[in-house]
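Reader question, answered in our methods column.
A reader sent in the components of a multi-part assembly and asked whether the whole thing could be modeled at once rather than chain by chain. We filled in our standard form and ran it. Here is what they sent:
COMPLEX SIZE: three components
ENTRIES:
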Amino acid sequence: MDIKNLQRDFELVRQKSPLVHNITNFVVMNNTANALLAIGASPVMAHAAEEVADMVQIASALVINIGTLSADWVDAMMIAGMAAKKKGIPVVLDPVGAGATPYRTEVCKLLIETVEPSIIRGNASEIMALVNDGISTKGVDSSDSSDNALQSAKQLALKTGAIVVISGPTDYITNGVLTETVVNGHPLMARVTGMGCTATAITATFAAINSNYMEAATHAMAMMSICGELAAAKAQGNGSMQVLFLDEMYNLTAEVLSTNLKQSADANL
Amino acid sequence: MDIKNLQRDFELVRQKSPLVHNITNFVVMNNTANALLAIGASPVMAHAAEEVADMVQIASALVINIGTLSADWVDAMMIAGMAAKKKGIPVVLDPVGAGATPYRTEVCKLLIETVEPSIIRGNASEIMALVNDGISTKGVDSSDSSDNALQSAKQLALKTGAIVVISGPTDYITNGVLTETVVNGHPLMARVTGMGCTATAITATFAAINSNYMEAATHAMAMMSICGELAAAKAQGNGSMQVLFLDEMYNLTAEVLSTNLKQSADANL
Amino acid sequence: MDIKNLQRDFELVRQKSPLVHNITNFVVMNNTANALLAIGASPVMAHAAEEVADMVQIASALVINIGTLSADWVDAMMIAGMAAKKKGIPVVLDPVGAGATPYRTEVCKLLIETVEPSIIRGNASEIMALVNDGISTKGVDSSDSSDNALQSAKQLALKTGAIVVISGPTDYITNGVLTETVVNGHPLMARVTGMGCTATAITATFAAINSNYMEAATHAMAMMSICGELAAAKAQGNGSMQVLFLDEMYNLTAEVLSTNLKQSADANL
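And here is the structure of the entire assembly that came back:
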């Protein structure tokens, strides 16, 4: 990726402080909000059917994350998603645990069909479950490699028109034809709950200020992975990792990005 | 404010360990509970219509925070609030995001009318939205200055009989006639999600042991702001700030309060 | 307890990484998930009636924690609990706040009768409230000593067939006839919200890999208490305690366990 564009988007987030509306899960709400505050965005969490369409009207992006879904929340996701589609702001879907239960897979498919998300970000197992019926996943942690899932991601992108992101040791960002990769990151990131959910919310933040969603998603994953790498170098375990990751995001500068970005040899594979 | 009274209330909280019943939002529950434990109070979170009136019977104060409201939760807030009013324990309302959606503003007005909270604590935008119809706010972060909101706070206090608190670089605590200010604090506090919600819960804690709610609210804001200032001096970002703030509250002494309290020149403005 | 068996179970958790399905409360979800990731388990949080029975099918243990219960969640607890009983995986019940309201006590009794949990873990007040009608507790913090509660724990174990665990300065683990004790630990653990809830989830993790639930529960409490003791030695307050505890769990080794385990003189009292 072009480091200049990454730096430009990072500075834009800081300047514009986009309001990101999150309908997300109970496990990660605190950390997602703090990550958005750390990068300079303004988070709001709201899930009542009575208000989600109104909240979308003042938001610059919408996150739909099904991590602790229930019927009422799915209704609100649909209402908010349709309002966001109508308004033309980006919608980023996180299909947490897709494949773990039929309910999760079905809700994801319904959301994809109705809301037509701009970007879908999941781990390898989740992305594969959205494409291949009958694939089952082990809870919310990935049991497949990102590399195996790339073909599924491309199919999903072509079928839905969404940019599809697979998080993993290598992150893949694809529109079905072109694929970008991010090779920064650290295994300790997978031992902190909700790190993927944070990636989804940061992706929405970048999509709020860059309507080239392929580029926005790539920049978001690069920024996440660089902060994760820097935090892991100081962390003593997953407790301090969670704290240090926020501090790295808070202190991030355009210079830190350029110093730490690893260019991947196999971009556009 | 009188430092002796601040110290007295602080020691009373430690001695009495009041049980504070919180009906609050999903984003902040963990940190609110830890902040209450740090200061020496005993937190309980309960929101089921089946039990909130019973929980109020063993509580010394009630927090109603609408941060992630939905219809069921609002019902429970009403039941708990009316039980607390009948029992005569302080009720502190946090109108999170009032003005961001009509639903939030309406629920706040309904709660104020029915429950008659003892204290209302919000940021500048939220307090203005409760007084001035048609004012809209940007999500849950304030887009107005505390100074601008003071007139609204006074109106709200006179109309409702509640003590009204505006959090910001300067905190204002008013009963509509007299106004106290707290000038301690640090901008980093606004970059940690739920710091305002913690202030509301701490305010309820002080109101549980001091029935002069104007004084209780002033003491709570002073204590919060001093701990925030001390934590910010050591923090590396909003991640460590959240952790250090709890540690400062945990280690707080009457002496630390007197060493760090900044007296404001414009008290009773 | 036999240190060799404790080490064996610890290593088994790391090797097998059991999937633990949690229906737990909003306050602790993030920390519970991180604690499970720290010890090497795979957490999943799911509470929708539409999916809990399916989630149980891929899980190795189920946690039912009533900390922020409501009617819908209780329905899901019943469905999941019955599915787990049928499947034969361990169910660990955390009766948070039993005795604080009649609703909590009644729901616990219903769950115990219907689901027949393998293990029940609570503080002294909660365990006593499940046995002695009319006993009331102060919120979710214990107001009784573990020693006083031991007779109640034995009665509860004999009546229900569950292993009963009382957390406190000394932890008691009893099947009604035999009683094990854990004397490691630190008072600072009680000042971090959800430490008991974490103990419950860790107990479920050990029960997933050791069908001798008496031994599994004892090992879980020993491991929790050792990590708590090590974290407290470095902590500056309850904020850093929460973070350091996760790091200690993450870095735990069989050697650390054997170096730090305190053998109790009064085992099998």
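What stands out: The CA atoms of residues 18 and 55 of chain A lie 13 Å apart. The mean pLDDT of chain A is 95.
Send us your own complexes using the same form.
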